[in-house]
């Protein structure tokens, strides 16, 4: 049990060191008046939501695949862009992961973060269970030696 506790604790520490971000928020509405006719790149809805809040195509991976199939840039989401260093968004970091090379709408860190948080909670539950079992076994051993 102690070896298992050591291993699960190591895994929990490893997960705690991983980069995470807040989960995506799927917010309805376009705020500036001049953007109210702006279509969502993924579902085409006019003025209902920004592309990074689309509920039709939700994950970064699905959105990136959609952009590739539609021959759209991963950084600016536009059709007429090759997605190279000349892209107007090439040097703008992603809101989620702070890296360049993709738009926030296609970042996979939010989904990865959810999995990391779930794995951390699972490790904590396992650690609590192992500690409880070890305490119980120690109390039984102490009771026998009295």
UniProtKB/TrEMBL annotation:
Q: Which domain of life is it from?
A: Eukaryota
Q: What is this protein called?
A: CCHC-type domain-containing protein
The species is Haemonchus placei
